[in-house]
Specification:
Helix content is 39%, strand content 18%. It is of the alpha+beta class and 311 residues long. The chain folds into 3 domains: 3-45; 70-198, PAS domain (Beta-Lactamase, 2-Layer Sandwich); 201-303, Homeodomain-like (Arc Repressor Mutant, subunit A), CATH 1.10.10. The strands form 2 sheets. Strands 5-4-8-7-6 form a 5-stranded antiparallel sheet. Strand 4 (83-88) and strand 5 form a beta hairpin. Helix 8 packs across helix 9 (220-226), helix 8 (201-212) packs parallel to helix 11 and helix 9 crosses helix 10.
Length: 311
């Protein structure tokens, strides 16, 4: 007779190895053989019924629990409030839920699934996650507390500048998943919020001024005055706090509004720019392309579906 380990049985039955050991110890697995502290289980042994649940007739008030389909399981992950991603054994990102993608720039988000590989990430050591990744892909469950995420190195390149004003720290938990042969298939990583550090009052005042006056020409003196600081002191504090200049944030806000206007099919591209206080010229087109990863016309085409003609 062929035998499998408690770990292999756990994978087949959808329980933990410890639960399999307990079932064997209680004599609930037919044909199981004990070797010291572990058990050998017949390959074709059926999963024992959980003794903690009493089978009753529906007439006794037993509520039937529906099976969770693959689609429902994915929907649960998609709507889960915390960041989750799943990586294949070769390091390729194969799934990221909505929370994980929150705040990502459109161009960066589109380039992730099926293309991003954690083993090719050059910043793992800088982020303090090199050992975490190595352990997870060696088959260990790993916990790394209080990691800045997204890291400041990603702000502006992969994540919107909004994320720079509140430092987010998360506990990162990675769990290896194995196939029926005990071979690593995936690594599931869950990010749980740990703490956040709020921005300085002066930076907050300057940011709020920019957000309220984005339609106007950029004026560093007025922004600094709103924060009760000199221009040089405010600019230095702002960059020290968030890693980029007040003008860069001003342009980020400006382009967010331009993108919204571009989605209005009743406005031409020139009108969309003008509505945001900007002339449609080669300079701003180049800045827009650097921000969105595409030209204004390309952005409009990719985000507005053509209307179907009716006879």
């Amino acid at each position: 007779m062929n035998y499998i380990t408690a770990r292999e049985a756990a994978l087949r039955w959808g329980v933990t190895a410890r639960q399999v050991q307990a079932l064997c110890k209680n004599g609930e697995v037919a044909g199981a053989i004990r070797f010291n502290r572990s058990y050998a289980i017949p390959r074709g042994a059926p999963k024992p019924k959980d003794g903690r649940c009493r089978e009753t007739d529906a007439r006794e008030g037993q509520v039937a629990v529906p099976e969770i389909s693959e689609g429902l399981f994915k929907e649960i992950f998609d709507r889960f409030p915390y960041r989750i991603n799943i990586t294949a054994a070769d390091g390729t990102l194969v799934y990221a839920n909505g929370a994980f993608s929150d705040g990502m720039l459109e161009g960066f988000q589109a380039s992730l699934l099926g293309q991003y590989n954690i083993f090719a990430e050059e910043n793992l050591e800088k982020w303090g996650l090199k050992t975490h990744v190595e352990k997870a892909f060696s088959g260990q469950a790993v916990f790394t507390p209080t990691v800045e995420f997204p890291n400041r190195t990603l702000i502006g390149e992969s994540y919107g500048t909004d994320y720079a004003f509140v430092s987010l720290y998360e506990d990162i938990n990675s769990y290896p998943m194995f196939d029926n042969a005990g071979k690593l298939s995936y690594v599931v990583t869950v990010f749980l919020p740990a703490r956040r550090l709020n921005e300085r009052q002066e930076v907050k005042q300057g940011r709020e001024y920019i957000e309220a006056h984005w339609e106007e020409p950029f004026d560093a003196a007025s922004i600094a005055q709103a924060a009760s600081l000199s221009v040089s002191r405010f600019v230095n504090m702002f960059m020290e706090e968030v890693g980029f200049s007040p003008r860069a944030y001003y342009l980020e806000i400006k382009f967010k509004h331009i993108k919204d206007k571009l989605l209005n099919a009743n406005l031409s591209i020139v009108q969309a720019f003008a509505a945001c206080g900007v002339d449609y010229n080669s300079y701003y087109v180049s800045l827009f392309k650097a921000n969105a990863g595409m030209t204004p016309s390309q952005y409009r085409k990719s985000n507005i579906k053509p209307m179907k003609r009716t006879r």
